[in-house]
Amino acid sequence: MSRSARSDPGARAAELREQLTEHGHRYYVLDDPTIGDDAYDALLDELRALEAEHPELLTPDSPTQRVGGTPVSNLEKVRHLQPMLSLANARSEEELTAWIDRMRAHLAREGIEDPQFSYVVEPKVDGLAISLLYENGVLVRGATRGNGEIGEDVTHNLRTIGAIPLRIDDAPERLEVRGEIYMSLADFEALNLRRAEEGLSTFMNPRNSAAGTIRQLDPRLAAERPLSMWSYAVGVTDGLSFGSHWESLEWLRAHGFRVNPDIVRLESTEAVLERCEDWQARRGSLAFEIDGAVVKVDDFELQRRLGVVGRDPRWAIAWKFPPTTAVTTLRDVMWNVGKFGTLHPFAVLEPVHVGGVTVRLATLHNEEDLARKDVRPGDDVIVLRAGDVIPQVLSPAPHVVERSDRAPVPHAPANCPICNTPTIKDEGVFTRCPNRDCPGRRWQLLQHFVSRGAMDVDGIGERQVSLLMEHELVRVPGDFYRLTEEQLVELEGFGEVSARRAVAAIAASKQQSFGRVLFGIGIEGVGSITGRNLAQRFRTIDALLAASPEQITETPGIGPIVGQLIHDQLHDERLQAVIEDLRALGVRLEEEGPPPGEGPLAGRAIVLTGTLPNLTREQATERVLAAGGRVTSTVSKRTDYVVAGESPGTKLEKAERLGVPVLDEPGLEAVLRGNVESAGADSIADSAGAVESAGADSIADSAGAESADDVESAGADSIADSAGAESADDVD
Ligand code: IVH
Questions:
Q1: Which helix (H) or strand (E) holds 2?
Q2: Domain 3-65: top CATH class
Q3: Which DSSP state fits 631?
Q4: Is 597 exposed, middle or buried (0-12, 13-18, 19+ CB in 10 A)?
């Protein structure tokens, strides 16, 4: 211990804290360290030793606190001081200028003619949004965006991030800083490599790994993983005010926050467009993933005047990049079995990096699609990964087509790739495995039954279904309900807690709607919407079983051929056995709620748009139907209500134009309770305010909202299965 430390440990600790903070800032924020890692570690060790000997010297902002403190037992919910908004999108020059025109029109209505806009253009980092709260300069809380209104307290993990100041100087009483947590591509790859070597599952992409890490309960995990943050906005500021966004960014930068140095302020639309395209061009050479650029009106007074529509501020827009493609070699075309036996081709690729994800497998949809694209093993092919959907093979690369040495056109195999039964040709187009006991078909059916759109059983996914089948615990849907905790605990990947939860989730699924059951049991021609329509029309399974093909055809969306097909399957012994089994187990086989023509929303047409804070689209639809209403997809004068959530898009605009009443989620709840008149009365004007208070999960956050385990386990090997699952069988 140094002399100064012995004589005045308090002063030495303060000195060390200051030095370490400064070096940390240089390293993590400025990317410009002036001392080496060893020297830094030596200072850190000294401070740690001092704090151990004099615990009273330990401060919450000490750099030693970044290594990961004590784990928390759960993530507390926190209400944001100001809602965390999302952004509307523009994908073309037209859409960008349309946005500017909309702003001008809005301001003109406010009496502001010909406003002079300055714009700030920023990268749209593909991570997860968080909010940091500083009280008198000390970081007191950090939270995820959550649904925009309520997020989760992840302070313990955020403290470990070097780019987040634990204390700021000359700080106002209260300051909220917002930004994006992310993992750089290099760090992401290194992390995955390490995990693969250790035999651990790898992460899908940098965003998932950042989101999964931030929601861990034990901060030591976050401390080991290289996360960073770009700060991009201030939220609540008590005792500090800014005239413009630019000013606030400069303040943040000067006070130790990491603000992207490539953010610029521009005066003209042309310059903005050029800058957006520039980000697009530079996208592939950045150290981190971006999925667009964000354009914000700089002036805070103009921002205030422009306000918010739905969850999106009028004063900002996300310039979204087109979907990402890459060229790689098609190693092989392989085949999978769908739930009704149809064989589906999928591509085995030379691994390729597309939009931050390593793609090894891609869907080729079906035989027709394969023939049309004419891709052959050995070809260089173009692979598309749009957003979060399954990657697909688009076409051969242009130079391939001229080659004379191409492999022959791949054909569906003569025998089922799973059970080896000779395949049959269906209506001349599709090849099928006719074996109804084919384990591939069974697996598809069983995993479909528990999937999110059907019975929605949490904790039982593709992997678990495989395990359950391997152990011969599940053969037909009813078997799920006979599983016990004792049986599950024996299986790989289950512990006592997860087994208990899974059994509870399975039991709870007995209460899923009749329409979901009809969809879940796997009737060819019955997608989720048809399932719901059949349930609504026939009300009980017995009425449906007794229906003639003609009566079935009277259901919306069902033509004569599909009507006959559904009828025949319902009279199939096996399906009847499945149904009777479920009935005996207490699964709901009747429609709840009033028959059509009754209920608080009887005869009303409702359009849903955007993401609601609490209800999924499916849930909202079910609630409307249960109340006797109809859900339609286009807004017209005959629409009774438009229910708008986050990122509502053009449907909201159309509703406003036609004067159709707009509801937010609480408004919907009110009409569902029968409060039709009062909710009907407050139309656009009121609901604009009401909509503002409705939050919604963004895609980025829903990745984070899933447990870290889920995110990690969603590996590439599930793509082969899902490539098969997404099939021509799903009629609607
Ligand atoms: S501004 C105006 N700026 O994009 C309120 N967001 O769709 C919206 N994001 O949840 C936030 N980079 O996760 C803003 N420079 C940036 C951003 C950014 C990434 C994310 C953020 C937010 C989502 C909005």
A1: none
A2: mainly alpha
A3: E
A4: exposed
- Cα(164)–Cα(28) distance, integer angstroms: 9
Could you tell me which residues come within 8 angstroms of residue 455 by beta carbon, excluding any fewer than 6 positions away? 449, 509, 512, 516, 517, 520
Instruction: Assign domain 325-433+711-723 to a CATH class.
Output: mainly beta
124 is a catalytic site residue: yes
- Within 10 angstroms of residue 370's Cβ, the number of other Cβ atoms is 23
Question: What is the 8-class DSSP label of residue 153?
Answer: B
Cβ–Cβ < 8 Å for 139, 159: yes
Model-wide pTM > 0.70: no
Q: Whose CA is nearest to atom 17 of ligand 1?
A: 124
User: Does the structure show a pLDDT above 50 at 152?
Assistant: yes
**Residue 87 Cα, ligand 1 centroid: separation in angstroms?**
7
Interatomic CA distance for residues 669 and 6, integer angstroms: 66
Relative to beta strand 77-79, strand 150-152 is antiparallel
For domain 605-696, which architecture applies? 3-Layer(aba) Sandwich (3.40)
Question: Residue 503 corresponds to which tokens in the numbers above?
Answer: 């059994």
| Cα dihedral value 593, 599, 601, 605, nearest 10 | 70
pLDDT tens digit string along 429-472?
Answer: 789 999 999 999 999 999 999 998 899 999 999 999 999 999 99
* Residue 618 contacts residue 453 (beta carbons within 8 Å): yes
pLDDT value at residue 6: 66
531 in Cβ contact with 537 (< 8 Å): no
What gap in Å lies between CA 660 and CA 541, rounded to an integer?
A: 37
Look up residue 470 and give its two tokens. 């391997």
Cα-to-centroid distance, 144 and ligand 1 (Å): 13
Cβ atoms of 334 and 345 closer than 8 Å: yes
Q: Which residue has the tokens 């034990």?
A: 218
Whole-angstrom distance, CA of residue 171 vs CA of residue 324: 42
Q: How close is the Cα of 86 to the center of ligand 1, in Å?
A: 6
Which residue's CA is the nearest one to ligand 1's atom 6? 124
CA-CA distances (angstroms) from residue 574 to 468, 476, 477, 570? 21, 10, 12, 9
Pairing mode of beta strands 316-320, 89-90: parallel
| 183: β partners | 227
Q: Is 678 in contact with 663 (CB distance < 8 Å)?
A: no
Query: Which secondary structure element, helix H or strand E, spans residue 319, and what is its range?
Result: strand 316-320
Which residue's alpha carbon is at the smallest distance from atom 19 of ligand 1? 124
Exactly one of 77, 124, 339, 373 is catalytic; name it: 124
Alpha helices, H only, 255-393: 269-282, 300-306, 367-373
Tokens 């300051």, residue located: 175
From the centroid of its chain, how far is CA 249?
28
Instruction: Give 570-593 as a DSSP string.
Output: HTSHHHHHHHHHHHHHT---B--S
Atom of ligand 1 nearest to the CA of 87: 7
- The domains of the chain are located at 3-65, 88-320, 325-433+711-723, 605-696
Asked if residue 593 lies in contact with residue 532, where contact means CB atoms within 8 angstroms, the answer is: no
Find the residues whose C-beta lies inside 6 A of ligand 1: 85-87, 122, 124-125, 129, 145, 180, 232-233, 294, 313, 316, 318, 698, 700
CATH fold of the domain at 88-320 = D-amino Acid Aminotransferase; Chain A, domain 1 (3.30.470)
pLDDT single digits (tens) 358-392: 899 999 988 888 998 999 999 999 998 865 568 89
